[in-house]
Amino acid sequence: MLVSTQPIQTDVDAEEALAKLGTNIAGFVIKTGDKDKLDVTYINAIYDSGNSTDFANDKKERGLAYTNILSIAQRI
């Protein structure tokens, strides 16, 4: 689910754009492949605003999400 979207600008420095955005980006890219194949990519980018507590919590949440995703793959 997309909470909010913005048009993609091709002439923007990615690091500068993330710094201005000041938020974390997370989501899935799901593509169908050949026959019964489904490719799922999990993306999670954490913005470090200089607040080490928030950054540490975000990294912890990312780790938990990644662990949950791997456990789903093992159960399929």
SSE layout and pairing:
Blueprint: H1 14-21, E1 25-32, E2 38-45, H2 52-75
Antiparallel strand pairs: 1-2
Protein name: Fam-a protein
Organism: Plasmodium yoelii yoelii
Would you kindly provide a written description of the structure presented here, covering whatever features stand out?
- This protein is α+β, with helices and mostly antiparallel strands.
- It is built from 2 helices and 2 strands, in the order αββα.
- The chain has one domain.
- Helix content is 42%, strand content 21%.
- Strand 1 and strand 2 (38-45) form a beta hairpin.
- The protein is flat.
Q: Please state the overall shape, judged from the principal axes of the Cα atoms.
A: flat
Helix percentage range: 40-55%
Query: Averaged pLDDT, please?
Result: 72
Let me know the largest β-sheet.
2 strands, antiparallel
Radius of gyration: 15 Å
Low-pLDDT segments, ≥5 res: none
Strand order of the largest sheet: 1-2
Q: How would you spell out the order of helices and strands?
A: HEEH
The helix count comes to 2
Helix/strand/pairing category? alpha+beta
Strand elements, count: 2
Distance between the termini: 23 Å
Total individual domains? 1
Strand content: 15-25%
Organism: Plasmodium yoelii yoelii
Protein name: Fam-a protein
